[in-house]
From TrEMBL:
It comes from the Bacteria. One of its GO terms (cellular component) is cytoplasm. Keywords: Kinase, Transferase. GO terms for biological process: phosphatidylethanolamine biosynthetic process. This is Choline kinase. Signal peptide: none annotated. The keyword Nucleus does not apply. The keyword NADP does not apply. One of its GO terms (molecular function) is ethanolamine kinase activity.
């Protein structure tokens, strides 16, 4: 059965569905589907244990975020399938987040996740502690004979240093995958978050560091982002902990790509992405070492 046949066979449709592929997937297949009742986004994907992705967790967070007005509403789910409302929109780009007004809106949205969704969510939810993720990735890479195995001792030594530097945290519900394209702007100008594969309880600084690094924020814009989120200028101890977590978020992205190189069937240039994100990690790590 093709992915399109899988979508077509869902019992959710009220008539013959029109199915259009949605490009840009890195771990799931996505489609925009139109039937007489409306337009929807369909995500197809099984659990990905090597990435600690569990679809029941994604479903729970997608549903809660929809009721909170943070994400499109969940309309249907079954094993391997999530159907949400389609919102006519455009995904943000790095350049969009360099605009002060857009950055402010994005920070407000992240704050709503950390405050409102943390209080709203009930039942089983995963914890996404990045240093546990890194240790798990190192295990998978070792077992699978990754070409990056020689790098692992150094990378994991740095990860231990970063975890110690992060120190105590305030636990919140996080999105944990704040790539610009996971923030969309609808036709009325409102921002929404999509794709909750990696959602779970985490430190606020992980989302903030991911937003800054994935958007390539200049230093002044990053400082403004932190002040907006905290409602004050952060102290040096907080900044050092934040920068350690930002390094960890970049290392996680690099090791995510290393694992995907040997496990994923998605058509994506993981080799190039590993090199790019690993280089960014080393730049951030050098900056952190100088603080």
């Amino acid at each position: 059965m093709t992915p399109e046949d899988r979508v077509r066979a869902l019992g959710f449709w009220s008539g013959q569905p029109k199915i259009e592929p949605l490009p840009g997937a890195r771990t799931t297949l996505k489609f925009v589907v139109t039937d007489p009742s409306g337009r929807y986004v369909v995500r197809l994907g099984q659990d990905i244990p090597e990435h600690l992705v569990m679809r029941w967790n994604e479903r729970s967070l997608t549903e809660a975020a929809g009721y909170a007005g943070i994400s499109p509403m969940l309309r249907h789910a079954e094993p391997g399938v999530i159907v949400t409302d389609f919102i006519p929109s455009a995904a943000l780009t790095k350049a969009d987040l360099h605009d002060p007004a857009t950055l402010r809106e994005a920070v407000e949205l992240v704050g709503r996740v950390h405050r409102d969704l943390s209080r709203r969510i009930t039942g089983p939810v995963l914890t996404f502690w990045v240093f546990h993720v890194l240790r798990s990735y190192a295990s998978v890479l070792g077992q699978q004979g990754s070409p990056h195995m020689m790098k692992l001792p150094m990378l994991m030594t740095e990860a231990m240093r970063l975890e110690e530097a992060v120190g105590e945290i305030a636990l919140v519900l996080g999105h944990n995958d704040l790539l610009p394209q996971n923030i969309i702007r609808d036709e009325g100008g409102r921002l929404w978050l999509v794709n909750w594969e990696y959602g779970g309880f985490n430190a606020p600084s992980f989302d903030l560091g991911g937003l800054a690094s994935n958007s390539g924020l200049p230093e002044e814009a990053e400082a403004e982002m932190l002040a907006l989120y905290l409602g004050r200028t952060p102290g040096q101890d907080w900044i050092r902990s934040y920068r350690a977590m930002k390094c960890a978020s970049l290392l996680r992205e690099a090791m995510w790509s290393m694992v995907s190189e040997i496990t994923s069937e998605v058509d994506f240039d993981y080799d190039a992405y590993t090199g790019e994100t690993l280089a960014r990690f080393h730049v951030a790590l050098d900056d952190w070492n100088l603080t």
